[in-house]
């Protein structure tokens, strides 16, 4: 553990810094529904802010929450949490900005818009972040199971002198201090999060899976074999990392797999791949990725739409859907798995 890491747990938080307040959760998607429901279960007064035509309004109401427009919710609240997609946050901020009063808090779960100057919050408002290091649906699932989700805390502006205590109380209310909350900055959270999702967690891993699958299928092996080997078993291997680090995985696999993996892994992720990772990190640090993503949205998302479609049409998706429907637990899983938002 690095000497200067500050990690907070339940005992470090005083719940009344958030239970005495009204929190407006703007958005009811992956993070929004999890924060709103966990806060409400922790005794916080929550209002969900969604635009009039929002398809999430019914879901929030059915879950027993009060729903208003983002402006009304912000006007009612002491703490406003931006949990709409990063690309729509600047417009939502413009809409609610004059409802923020001195001493209120504007909160984020990711620093993109503050770090890249797409949102400039007023000077007299606290600006904080509690960023769960997890997809939102697991933030809710873990909380309901009595477990926690690790998170990050960052203070961009402490106008009231109480920003840290309030953010910690919020982290406790959504279950993050059960697992541990690390203090960081908006810059560090933004850059590491973007790098991680591009190079490793989302981009890197899907490219590795598809590369392995295509290599086997092109060599004449059956798509079903390739699917199980390169995608399905990935989850089982990652579960071992999660439980006990790299060592638990290496202990659990055969010596043959361990020797093959230790000798061949670095042939795959070689110096060239590491140079590419450096390039991705530089693009995040110098703002090139942010400018590209903002321009992509301004242009109506042409590249995003085309790449997303191609991903959905990859053979591995068809084979996977067929195989998963045969799993004995498929029906139970389908009931438990939250549906993704329709258009995102
Ligand atoms: N996804 C995740 O697990 C993680 C996300 N984050 C961060 O959390 C934040 C939220 O991300 P995420 O949960 O993925 O977001 P989602 O894409 O899941 O948010 C969708 C929600 O936002 C609403 N919404 C969309 N457009 C607008 C608008 N113009 N005005 C008001 N509401 C709108 C949607 O309503 P409707 O149904 O009407 O479209 C829906 O309720 C981002 O900053 C993200 O980086 C951080 C950690 C992990
Ligand atoms: C890994 C993707 C993520 O950063 C997350 C779930 O933490 C995101 O932006 O959704
Ligand atoms: Mg993340
Ligand atoms: Mg992210």
From TrEMBL:
Which residues participate in substrate binding? 254
Quick one: which residues bind NADP(+)?
28-31, 54, 56, 136
Give the cofactors, semicolon-separated. Mg(2+)
GO MF terms here are: ketol-acid reductoisomerase activity; magnesium ion binding
Enzyme category, top tier: oxidoreductase
In which residues is Mg(2+) 2 bound?
193, 229, 233
**Record domain KARI N-terminal Rossmann: where:** 5-184
Question: Which pathway does the UniProt entry assign to this protein?
Answer: Amino-acid biosynthesis; L-valine biosynthesis; L-valine from pyruvate: step 2/4; Amino-acid biosynthesis; L-isoleucine biosynthesis; L-isoleucine from 2-oxobutanoate: step 2/4
Q: Where is the active site?
A: 110
As recorded in UniProt, its EC number(s) are 1.1.1.86
Q: Where does Mg(2+) 1 bind?
A: 193, 197
Residue span(s) of domain KARI C-terminal knotted: 185-330
Q: Which Gene3D superfamilies match?
A: 6.10.240.10, NAD(P)-binding Rossmann-like Domain
Name the protein family.
Answer: Belongs to the ketol-acid reductoisomerase family.
Role, per record? Involved in the biosynthesis of branched-chain amino acids (BCAA). Catalyzes an alkyl-migration followed by a ketol-acid reduction of (S)-2-acetolactate (S2AL) to yield (R)-2,3-dihydroxy-isovalerate. In the isomerase reaction, S2AL is rearranged via a Mg-dependent methyl migration to produce 3-hydroxy-3-methyl-2-ketobutyrate (HMKB). In the reductase reaction, this 2-ketoacid undergoes a metal-dependent reduction by NADPH to yield (R)-2,3-dihydroxy-isovalerate.
Q: What is this protein called?
A: Ketol-acid reductoisomerase (NADP(+))
What organism does the record attribute this protein to? Halomarina halobia
